[in-house]
């Protein structure tokens, strides 16, 4: 297994790579939602220098695509075109960097309730539309990558997203997954059995785990052992040799503590 951390607060690409090497991580995951790590203006020469520096430190590069303010469900033609161009640029440069994988959120789509009801009647009526948008967008991104794995994370995972993911795989697309352990829990702090069954079925497609805890005081992205996540329940995924363990706890010092805590808990 290989371990890494989620780079957010590091000064630049080189220092983040240094930190990974110094702390015993085999990879670093750069979050492309952070301006420090925007790769838009990096030339091929810049990218190759970062790639070669990482190799010299024996540190692999992975990415997390922007996900908090963009969505692969976006269907406004001009905005959709801009999002796809941005993501394809990212994937192209990730391939030059020889990034092992890039984690992507599906995003979300509109919901509209009627007065006096609890259910969302809009989504069932427009389900085909939003499934087709996600299928086309995600499929197009997968086809644009030569080597870097495209990994869909279980963020805002719902039956519509799951349906599209299954269809893409059935249609021969090389879709992989990032399984976020803390996001496997419901609001009632119980493991989502449907999501767990999905990942059991598609275990061979998982390429990354996001490791962090969650508690009532501070929510997600807490140090292992400080919340409600039962990491032993995911041991078969954690010990899979194809899966990279990304300690998504910030800052770096907390990621180091989280790794130590997990390894002690599971006797790794």
Describe the protein's architecture and organization:
The structure is a single chain. The chain is built from 8 helices and 10 strands. α4 packs across α5. Helices cover 40% and strands 18% of the residues. It has one domain: Alpha-Beta Barrel (TIM Barrel). The longest helix has 23 residues, at 122-144. By secondary structure, the protein is of the alpha/beta class. The N and C termini lie close together (10 Å). The mean pLDDT is 97. The protein is globular and about 55 Å long. The protein has helices spanning 13-22, 44-56, 77-96, 122-144, 159-170, 193-201, 235-238, 252-266; strands at residues 2-7, 27-31, 60-64, 101-104, 149-153, 175-180, 206-211, 213-215, 219-222, 244-247. β4 (101-104), α4 (122-144) and β5 form a beta-alpha-beta unit.
Features:
18% strand, 268 residues, globular, 8 helices, TIM Barrel, two-stranded antiparallel ribbon, alpha/beta, 8-stranded parallel beta barrel
Residues in β-strands, percent: 15-25%
Residues in helices, as a percent range: 25-40%
- What is the general shape? globular
What is the level-2 CATH architecture name? Alpha-Beta Barrel
Low-confidence stretches: none
Note the main sheet: 8 strands, parallel, barrel
Strand order of the largest sheet: 1-2-3-4-5-6-7-10
- Number of individual domains: 1
The count of strands amounts to 10
Looking at CATH, the homologous superfamily is Divalent-metal-dependent TIM barrel enzymes
Structural class, judged by helices and strands? alpha/beta
The CATH topology turns out to be TIM Barrel
Please tell me the overall pLDDT: 97
CATH class: Alpha Beta
Number of helices: 8
- Separation, N- and C-terminal Cα atoms: 10 Å
